[in-house]
Amino acid sequence: TRPRIVVAGSLNMDLVVSTDRMPRIGETITGRHIDYIPGGKGANQAVGCARLGADTSLIGVVGTDAFGAQIVQALEREGVGLPHVERTADAPTGTATIVRTPEDNCIIVVPGANAHCSPEQMDRARALLGQADALLVQLEIPAAAVAAAVEAAASQGVRVIVNPAPARRLPAELLRRIDVLTPNETELETLTGEPVEQLSSAGLARVLAAWEAEYGHRVIVTQGRHGCSFLDAGRLVNVPAPQAEAVDTTGAGDAFNAALALALCEGRAFADAAAFAVTAASLSVTRFGAQAGMPTRAEVEAAVGRNDFEHEQGEGR
Ligand code: ATP
């Protein structure tokens, strides 16, 4: 049977404007083109889970506008369950406007309808959450909705995975209810107040051990092209990322979280699940678009096989 994963989170339309240079303050320039790309960490991670073969449902809110309809259609095509994606007339669908030049980008996120995701909505989804093998949630919806989703899942014995992105401090009561936390290094800095990127391995191990002892869950830190690290019986383990020709790293974290959730639901050991997740994420960086770049299960399995082979030959790392 396929693992059942419920994702609670954001749905956005990303408006990607490509220009040769950034406008100055007060200036009007002509851009080269604009792409409309469905995004939002919640929707991206749901697509990631569905492509990997999970029975996936999403809880979130879009507007009654055209963007909302387009996003819902894209998710339907991916086979994501949408009975708990609600539509509100009180706000536009969330957007991320990204101005991209060959050198740089600037991003403005307007949460819009995502800000209407509420604890009451999580109550309405309580039965769905109770049947899940895992809840996967990020922080692009209001804190009260995150807390309610975590509580609804945890109180029904469902595994809770929190991807604390974008970085935000979290209340201790919530942290004590979760099973796995998946920050990147910057998010771990915000959560712990420690200068994570400057720490030695021993320093990172100490920070993670103190955190896990305090909150009673496991932490897996993503480190970009360096893969990810976690504690195993008090020892810091690094799972290196397979080498990848990075074309577009947006959505790497989303692919990682989707794959980790799926692998944990399948009962794989933590180290195994981490290896599956870094492989899925490394495939996603080789393609444009967060949702479009999510790999399928067959692709990840083929790549895991290749990496094992390279590892045995001592190459490619
Ligand atoms: P993003 O916000 O860009 O989606 P993130 O900051 O949440 O990503 P990262 O730690 O940057 O998360 O990346 C997540 C995972 O993606 C890493 O653990 C790694 O497996 C993979 N990854 C990211 N960048 C690369 C890269 N250049 N080459 C190979 N794998 C990568």
How would you sum up this structure in a few lines?
With 317 residues, this protein is of the alpha/beta class.
Key features of this structure:
four-stranded mixed sheet; nine-stranded mixed sheet; alpha/beta; 13 strands; 317 residues; binds adenosine-5'-triphosphate
Mean pLDDT value: 94
Give the overall shape, derived from the CA principal axes: globular
Helix fraction by DSSP (H/I, runs of at least 4): 25-40%
Question: How far apart lie the N and C ends?
Answer: 35 Å
* Element-level helix/strand string: EEEHEHEEEHHEHEHEHHEEEHHH
Please give the largest β-sheet.
9 strands, mixed
The kinds of small molecule bound in this structure are: adenosine-5'-triphosphate
* Strand-pairing-aware structural class: alpha/beta
Q: How many strands in all? A: 13
Low-confidence stretches: 311-317
The fraction of residues assigned to DSSP E strands is 15-25%
Gyration radius (Cα, Å) is 19 Å
Task: Please state how the strands of the largest beta sheet are arranged side by side.
Answer: 5-4-1-8-9-10-11-12-13
Number of helices: 11
